[in-house]
Amino acid sequence: MAKVELKLNSLRYWIMAFRPKTLTAALVPIIAASALVKALQLPLHLWISGLALAASLCIQIGTNLVNDAVDFKKGADKEDRIGPQRVTQSGIFSSKTVMVVGSLFFILAVLCGVPLVIEGGWPIVAIGLFSVLCGYAYTAGPFPLAYRGLGDIFVILFFGIIAVMGLVYLQTQQWRIEAFVLGLQVGFHCTVLIAINNLRDINGDKLVNKHTLAVRFGKTFARYEIALLCFVPFLFLSYWIQVGFGAFILLALLPLPLAINLVMKVFKTEPSPVFNSYLGQAAGLHILFGILLSVGLLI
Question: Which of 10, 39, 67, 83 is within CB 3.0–4.6 Å of 297 for a Cys-Cys bond?
Fold first, then answer.
């Protein structure tokens, strides 16, 4: 019984280390891109979407695990951190173990991508290698993106533009402007999570020279960045009306009150543990907007 309980606890901690709230970053682009392919009345191959989702989830989890281990080693995650519990910082798993498991997820992502490379050719090879390398280099390596203020751009690119455009290309063998716009919308809302995270951790990040955009430009900039990321995807809904999609695309306006409420809280509240709940709200905004936009495209 004790061994079973120990295994269940280990599983629970690994799931916590995967950061489930952030996994919408991998899910929403696949849903949205697949919906766009159907909306354009082009053939949709579910096996391609499924493998792309698996690869994207593996990269996201691998990135989260490497971030967990590296931030602890660099001193960004200490006992007094105000963010959610981290398994390396808490001593639940060693940084070496977490790095190894993170690397295994990157390997799984590559394996999931092999059939996609066969289907899509060299463009998918380039996208896949770039995605895996950036996932690792988010906090690790000689030029960690998150420590240079480039994490936000990485999220917009990988979990927005590249994820959507890449899947639409795999499905259709076409690079489409619609996929670029959709990728921007999805990527902006995804980046709200990292922007909130960086504002929450601004004081601790300063101490370890983690130069996020919040650290570089201050709290006011970070708050306006969050507002911009929240609201711009709603403005882009006008594009879909202009290119001939019907009024049902406006279903994606339904989460606007959630976005307004989130931004108001961010502007009124100083960085503190309450920002952890804002991360959950941001994830809700991301997935709700993405699903409703997808439904609007399909109808």
Answer: 39
Q: What are phi and psi of 10, to 5 degrees?
A: -60, -45
Contact 172, 162 (CB under 8 A): no
Given a contact cutoff of 8 angstroms between Cβ atoms, the answer to whether 26 and 159 are in contact is yes
* CA–CA gap between residue 98 and residue 133 (Å, rounded): 17
Whether residue 15 is contained in a domain is answered as no
- The domain total for the chain is 1
CATH of the domain at 202: 1.10.600
- Is 14 among the domain residues? no
CA dihedral 260, 23, 211, 232 (to 10 degrees): -30
Q: What SS3 state is found at 176?
A: coil
Spatial contact of 132 and 150, defined as CB atoms under 8 Å apart: no
Q: Which residue has the higher pLDDT, 239 or 140?
A: 239
Mean pLDDT of 122-130: 81
pLDDT tens digits, one per residue of 176-199: 999 999 999 999 999 999 999 999
Which tokens in the block code for residue 105? 């997820």
Check pLDDT > 80 for residue 1: no
What is the domain extent for residue 221? 24-298
